[in-house]
Design goal:
Length: 456
C-alpha cells in the first residue's frame, strides 16, 4: 500500500511525509510548491554549472566592441579600426586583439534589441529578462540561481556544498536594479567590496575583501552568541505567530559562514595565484576588471554558481575614443583592459578544463547611437546592440543574428532580453517555464511567457 497513489497524485508515503512537515510549520501548499519546483527544475540537464556575468555598466558601444561597421560613413564607424579574428570573416574592434585570437571559443549576438534606453529600466530588463513594471520587482539572474540551488536537496545534480555565498558580486552589484526582487533577501549577492586596484598601477596581489576579518572586540564566540540569539528570535516568532515576519539575518549567517571557514576566506586571496597568472589578467590600473575576473574564476572554481563582475564607466556621451586610451600610453583604458581580462579569463577556464561547465556572459543595458554626436561620443541606443557568450554549452566561433549596415536596427534574428534570459537559464539547467512564487503566493515564471531559447 505504501506505493499506492491517490487521485490527487499523492501517495500514502507522501501523505505521511506531509503530516510530518505540517508539524514543523509546513502546509500542503508548501509541500506542493516544493514538489513542483524540483520537478520542473529537474526536467533540464545543465550544460553549465556556473555563470560569470561581466556587466559593462553604462551601456557599451556595440560599434566600438563586437559589431563594428568599417564600411559605414565616418560619422557612423567612428575613430577606431577593426581587426580580423581567428575565424574567417569575423572582425571586431582593433582594441580587442587578444579576444580576436580566441574567437573560436566565443559567440557574439549582434541583434539584441530592447525598447528601453534609460539606464535603470534597461538594466532591469537585461538583468531579469522582464520589462520593469510597478506591479512587481523581478529578481536578477544570480538571485534566481541562488534560490534554486539553495533548495536543491540532491547533490547528484552537481551542487557543491560550500560556505561561500551562492551569489557574489565583484566589487559590488549595480545599484540600478533590485538584486533579489520578490525572492528572499538571502539570495541577494554578497558584494566583496575591497580594494579596486585604483591605488597604483602595479599588480595588486594584496586585494582585501570587506568583512572577512573581525572588528576590534568581535571574535567567534561573540559572533556565535549573536547568531544563536537571532535563531532564538526566529523560533520564538514562529511559535507565537505562524504569520509573523521573518526576523532572520541572512547577512549575519553569510558573514558567520565566511569568517569561520578558512577555505571560504582563502577563495578571496589573490596572492595565492602565481605572478604570471595575475599578470596575464592585468590586475593593476584604474578600473580593476582584471582582478575582478581572476577572483570570479577562483570563486566558480570553488563551487559558487553565479558571480557578477560589475565594471563601470561605459556611459560614453563624450569622446568615444577614450575607450581606447585616456592618455597617449595608457593601456588601462576600458577596451584594452577588458580585452586583456576577458581573454585571460576564457583561456584560464580552458586550461583548467572549466570552460565547458562555466558560462561567461558579457553585456550592458543597451548599445550606443550609430551616429557620433557633437561631443564626439555616442548616446543611448537600445534598438540594437551586442552580447557576448562563451563556454557553458555555447558553440564558439559564431555570430548570432545581425544588425543593419549602420548598426541601427536588427537585420536578422532579433533577440530580446527575455529570449536571452530563457537561454541563460536553460544552459544552467533551469526550466524557463518554472514557476516561483511571490510572498503572497502569486506564481511567476523564471522567464517570461513567450521567451524563445536561442540556438547557441
Amino acid at each position: 500500500m505504501n506505493g499506492v497513489t491517490r487521485c490527487d497524485g499523492m501517495s500514502r508515503r507522501d501523505f505521511i511525509r506531509v503530516g510530518g512537515l505540517t508539524a514543523l510549520g509546513f502546509g500542503l501548499a508548501d509541500f506542493f510548491h516544493l514538489q513542483n519546483t524540483f520537478a520542473a527544475k529537474n526536467t533540464l540537464t545543465a550544460k553549465a554549472k556556473s555563470c560569470i556575468l561581466i556587466w559593462l555598466d553604462g551601456g557599451p558601444s556595440h560599434l566600438e566592441t563586437f559589431d563594428p561597421k568599417p564600411d559605414a560613413p565616418q560619422e557612423v564607424r567612428g575613430p577606431l579600426n577593426t581587426i580580423p579574428t581567428n575565424i574567417t570573416g569575423i572582425r571586431i574592434s582593433e582594441c580587442m586583439e587578444r579576444v580576436a585570437q580566441i574567437m573560436d571559443k566565443i559567440a557574439i549576438i549582434r541583434s539584441m534589441t530592447s525598447p528601453l534606453g534609460e539606464h535603470d529600466l534597461g538594466t532591469q530588463y537585461l538583468m531579469t529578462g522582464y520589462k520593469p513594471t510597478p506591479a512587481l520587482t523581478y529578481p536578477a539572474y544570480g538571485a534566481t540561481v541562488a534560490y534554486l540551488r539553495s533548495q536543491q536537496v540532491d547533490t547528484s545534480q552537481g551542487t557543491i556544498q560550500t560556505a561561500l555565498p551562492m551569489n557574489i558580486a565583484i566589487p559590488n552589484f549595480t545599484g540600478q536594479v533590485s538584486a533579489n526582487g520578490y525572492l528572499p533577501s538571502a539570495t541577494r549577492p554578497f558584494s566583496v567590496g575591497g580594494s579596486s586596484g585604483k591605488e597604483n598601477s602595479k599588480i595588486n596581489s594584496g586585494f582585501k575583501v570587506r568583512d572577512l576579518d573581525f572588528y576590534q572586540g568581535i571574535d567567534i564566540p561573540r559572533l556565535s552568541r549573536r547568531r544563536q540569539f537571532v535563531q532564538a528570535l526566529n523560533e520564538f516568532s514562529s511559535a507565537k505567530d505562524a504569520g509573523a515576519g521573518d526576523v532572520s539575518d541572512p547577512e549575519l549567517e553569510r558573514a558567520y559562514n565566511l569568517i569561520t571557514s578558512p577555505e571560504a576566506k582563502g577563495a578571496f586571496s589573490l596572492a595565492d595565484e602565481p605572478h604570471n597568472v595575475r599578470s596575464r589578467y592585468g590586475l593593476g590600473g584604474v578600473n580593476g576588471i582584471g582582478m575582478s575576473c581572476l577572483l570570479a574564476r577562483r570563486l566558480v572554481e570553488r563551487g559558487v554558481p553565479f558571480v557578477t563582475v560589475n565594471h563601470t564607466g561605459w556611459d560614453t556621451h563624450q569622446d568615444i575614443f577614450q575607450l581606447k586610451e585616456r592618455y597617449p600610453t595608457d593601456q588601462n583604458a576600458h577596451l584594452p583592459s577588458l580585452d586583456r581580462a576577458l581573454s585571460a579569463l576564457i583561456q584560464d577556464l580552458t586550461d583548467r578544463n572549466m570552460l565547458d561547465e562555466t558560462l561567461v556572459v558579457v553585456m550592458g543595458e543597451f548599445g550606443r547611437t550609430p551616429k557620433i554626436n557633437a561631443q564626439g561620443g555616442r548616446d543611448h541606443w537600445p534598438n540594437v546592440f551586442s552580447v557576448m557568450l562563451a563556454g557553458g554549452g555555447v558553440q564558439g566561433g559564431q555570430i548570432i543574428g545581425s544588425s543593419d549596415s549602420l548598426g541601427e536596427f536588427p537585420k536578422e534574428h532579433p533577440i530580446t532580453p527575455s529570449d536571452l534570459a530563457a537561454t541563460i537559464y536553460t544552459l544552467l539547467g533551469i526550466n524557463p517555464a518554472l514557476e516561483l512564487h511571490t510572498n503572497d503566493g502569486r506564481p511567476v515564471r523564471v522567464a517570461p511567457d513567450g521567451a524563445k531559447v536561442i540556438k547557441v
